[in-house]
């Protein structure tokens, strides 16, 4: 924490702009290389179309209204699954981290469930919930649940017992103790868990949409592969990168806000 | 709504811990009748159970034998009538010093009244200018004074102080001792004060309770934890140079195994 505070403590406006500028150097270079190898003909276009072709694919899809649709449905699935999974992760993580009974009762089972590779759930979810939205949102929720559950339960279990005792000595118990001591103490880990969960949500989204879907970016990937549209595949990948980064930045903002008093 | 000072009664209090290497008796047969408003200093070698004894009174721990009563009724965890300043400051790192002191306020204190009280207490312990700092930004001594202010915020009938001035430099320590005398005079409260400083004990307390370590080979197998109780003569504020106190000091140090003169 101290080391972080020293490195990132109160960045000036100029410093932040500089960091943003530096962060764009590598993407710009990649774009340039991409352009060069494709424009020079070193790599054939049917294997790697140039940035211009990908841009045209985007404009074309957007004009038909498909692009906005794919993006919107994917974002909606990720957010619903994330909210459900992270919420459950918080609740169950608190139960396991705060109560010995909860720990003994739940952690062995949850440990086993977590060991199941994500794709193994797909056939079952499709059988139970059909190919509709529920099966996808559920899969994403499973993906979001575990990072939150794991970090929250561990963080609550390791809250400084001396602080907890101080809280008790000053008349805090139960929910009050949770709100004054335990949750604030665990907050940095909780936020880190939420961040991981969001990344995991995108991962599970693509898994869900690749396998069974008629909309969304994962579907776009799959569909384009079958039609040999490398330009659209690249477009979907770039969109996933941008969307993932954007949502992560949102959590980053939340993190800075919540942890202001911590740093 | 200031609480009145309350009496504390310790009857045959004993505490034995179960440890991986078997049971470990730390306190045995402690009997102590503390009057309302009295200041008691607890001294003794480190590890003899001073902090453990305070924990019995704050009900953060339960005695294996015997009973602890405040104002005639048994103590309960988080008891509104008692307040502790722990040996470590134990401040919440994400809160400002002011917000840490506010933790000590009785629950449901009106907001404005609480803020005023916190400001008053921070001023009292000399931290008015540091109200918005976080614990990691202040010295150990400042943290300890914050912890004292937090305990005072509870306006307790019994104030439990575990080496509250241990981390302070010599000068601040003297100032804080005088502050405690002042606080005690203006808002009478019963005080149990653990200290390793015999002079401090004699300056502040009505009675000094000397505890002994049960693990000490010199301790008789059935002896209780209280080795001795010394009445300190005179009224507060005392004269630090009073020769009666100097003599008592030599006596107490001897009790603690520190002779003041090297005999020929
Ligand atoms: N929860 C506990 N479990 C086991 N031993 C303990 C526990 N709390 C205190 N002790 C032991 O009791 C002894 C007295 O501790 P303490 O009251 O902190 O001493 P003091 O405050 O006089 O220095 C120490 O040897 C300590 O190790
Ligand atoms: Mg101690």
TrEMBL record, chain A:
InterPro entries per record: MetI-like, MetI-like_sf
Compartments reported by the entry: Cell membrane
Superkingdom in the source lineage: Bacteria
Tagged with keyword Transmembrane helix: yes
Domain ABC transmembrane type-1, residue spans: 67-252
Cell membrane keyword on record: yes
Segments crossing the lipid bilayer: 20-37, 78-99, 111-131, 137-156, 177-196, 202-221, 233-254
GO cellular component, one term: plasma membrane
Protein's GO biological process: alkanesulfonate transmembrane transport; cellular response to sulfur starvation
Keywords associated with the record: Cell membrane, Membrane, Transmembrane, Transmembrane helix, Transport
Pfam families reported in the protein's UniProt record: BPD_transp_1
Predominant cellular place of this UniProt entry's protein: membrane
Family: Belongs to the binding-protein-dependent transport system permease family.
PANTHER family the record matches: ABC TRANSPORTER PERMEASE PROTEIN, ALKANE SULFONATE ABC TRANSPORTER-RELATED, MEMBRANE SUBUNIT
Protein name: Nitrate ABC transporter permease
Species assigned in the record: Actinophytocola xanthii
Automatic annotation (TrEMBL), chain B:
Superkingdom of the organism of origin: Bacteria
Listed GO MF terms: ATP binding; ATP hydrolysis activity
Alphabetized InterPro entries for the sequence: AAA+_ATPase (IPR003593), ABC_transporter-like_ATP-bd (IPR003439), ABC_transporter_ATP-bind (IPR050166), P-loop_NTPase (IPR027417)
Keyword flag Magnesium: no
Entry-linked Pfam families: ABC_tran (PF00005)
Protein's UniProt keywords contain Nucleotide-binding: yes
Alphabetical UniProt keywords: ATP-binding, Nucleotide-binding, Transport
Coiled coil residues, start to end: none
Chain ranges of the ABC transporter domain: 8-238
Protein name stated in the entry: ABC transporter
